[in-house]
Amino acid sequence: MVRARRQVARGALVAAVLLSAQVAQATYSPPLTRVRIDRDQRSHTPSLVYALEGKSTAATDLTLKAYGAQYLGQFEFDFGFGLQVGAALGYADVDGTVGQLALGGLAVNTGGIWVGGQLRAYQMLWKSEVDEAVARPSALTVFVNLRTLFYDTAGGSEPDRADLRFFTVTGGVGAMAELSVSDYVSICPYAWLTPGVTTQLDYRVRGLDFEANGGPSLRNPFLVGLDVWIYPFPPNWDDHISLSVLASLVDTEGSDRSFAGVIGYTF
């Protein structure tokens, strides 16, 4: 029975941490806050993020909620190239069960902070030909990135709480388009391949200590999203409000459900 409980505890926390890692990564804002890159300038984007992730199998039912704030800075040049740096901070909690409680299953209840950072380089490939004094051009830009996440719970005295620390690095390559539909609104679809690079995990639950490290992974390799950008001051084509929805399109190990939403302001 003790061995079974240890196996359940290990499985529960691994599932919970992997779940929290996927969502906390997804809560980053969309890849770019500007797609038309045709002059030297700097942009700033503070944003608020929210994510909800569920993982259900015959023996597992876990739900994670994540909240946070993020800042993105973009540095752009007139030949279409740009660099983006970002930092994020938030809170996430995981609740649910792994296994049948009557047979030694574990009720999971843990929460803590997550801290993230990212570096992205991008190049504009295309821009529509319009008179920018009276209309906003559409554009297409490709990018590559590295993102990192650190997750740490505060622990507690309750038997279902856990102390855990998790660090991960993910890569990425993708594209984002801005489709200008009016003076005030653009639709911005995007997609990117985002493989895991490395993970490091340490945690304690019910007096048991575990460590788990991982290498490259394609657990949720393909992310898609859609932004609506609202320009409140045309013909100022720089300042805008972004409303974003992000989801995982492909799950290589199941059919988990996920959602992330972001609201930000670029100026």
Describe this structure in a few short sentences.
With 267 residues, the chain is mainly beta. It has one helix spanning 2-26, and strands at 41-56, 60-76, 81-98, 106-127, 139-153, 162-180, 185-193, 196-205, 208-214, 222-230, 240-250, 257-266.
What this model shows, in words?
The structure is a single chain. The protein is mainly beta and 267 residues long. The protein has one domain: OPCA outer membrane adhesin/invasin (Lipocalin), CATH 2.40.128. Helices cover 9% and strands 61% of the residues. The chain has a ten-stranded antiparallel beta barrel with strand order 1-2-3-4-5-6-7-10-11-12. 39% of the residues are buried.
Named CATH architecture: Beta Barrel
Based on DSSP secondary structure assignment, what is the total number of beta strands?
12
- Beta-strand level of the residues, as a percent range? over 45%
In terms of quaternary structure, what is this?
Answer: single chain
Keywords, separated by commas or semicolons:
single chain; 267 residues; mainly beta; Lipocalin; ten-stranded antiparallel barrel; 12 strands; 61% strand
